[in-house]
Amino acid sequence: MYFTHSLVGAASSKLVLDRVEKKFTEREKRVLWVIGITASVLPDFDLIYSALNHMVNHRDFITHGIFIYLLMSIFLYFLSFIRDKEEFGRKFFKTLALVFLLGILAHFLMDFIVGGIVFFAPFSYKIVGFEMISQRGSGNWLLKYLDSIYMVLELFNLTFFLLLLKDKKYSFGKMIALSYVLMAIFAFLFINVVYF
Questions:
Q1: Spatial distance between the Cα atoms of 124 and 132, rounded to a whole number of angstroms
Q2: Domain ranges of the chain
Q3: What string of DSSP letters covers 108-174?
Q4: Tens of pLDDT along 61-84?
Q5: φ and ψ of 146, to 5 deg
Q6: Is the dihedral of CA 183, 185, 186, 187 positive or negative?
Q7: Beta strands in 7-94, from DSSP E residues, in sequence order
């Protein structure tokens, strides 16, 4: 997936936020939205590095392994033991750890479906997941992606996102997620123009 990781991250954040909505202030909920959605695109922050180093598959890099994100999530959870405040306190950091990890797992699920990931990195760099169907021949692989079956999955994610978060109370989460989609489109075009 290239464009809709943030939409799936928003959907996973919604699942948590709906259950704990009354326990948090508006500021806390906004931070949870931002962290959950950002976590869902975080593994792809290596795309620039991959493009600069002409890597064929950025998903075989450590950023697509669960270990570093488990450590981050555990760190966030342990912050709950030292934060004894009403706002941004214990319950917030426990929920933050969950939202962060769910965002990462949402990303991994999408990439697992469309080409696989090195889920156990840095301990094993064996790619697990479904093999991405590639169109053979020369040409720009980014343009080939736009003309592939995977765009159907991107459109499904967009439709699912719009239906799931149609209520006005999800406006902030929708805005953050769609902002990331626009950034992904811009990055897609930029990499396509500069490197291909």
A1: 20
A2: 5-195
A3: HHHHHHTT-B-TTTTT----BSPPPP---SSS-HHHHHHTSTHHHHHHHHHHHHHHHT-SGGGHHHH
A4: 888 999 999 999 999 999 999 877
A5: -60, -25
A6: positive
A7: none
> Residue type at 134?
S
Q: Are 35 and 100 in contact (CB under 8 A)?
A: yes
pLDDT of residue 120: 95
Report residue 57 CA to chain centroid gap. Answer: 17
Cis check for the bond before 122: say yes or no (omega within 30 of 0).
yes
Q: Which residue has the higher pLDDT, 174 or 59?
A: 174
Query: With left for phi above 0 and alpha for psi between -120 and 50, is residue 116 left, alpha or beta?
Result: left
- What token pair was written down for 89? 């306190």
For 132-145, the pLDDT digits (tens) are 665 555 566 667 77
Q: Indicate the SS3 state at residue 104.
A: helix
- Residue 2, both tokens: 């290239």
What pLDDT digit, counting tens, does each position of 38-52 carry? 999 999 888 777 777
Task: Output the pLDDT for position 96.
Answer: 97
* Residue 155 token pair: 């459109």
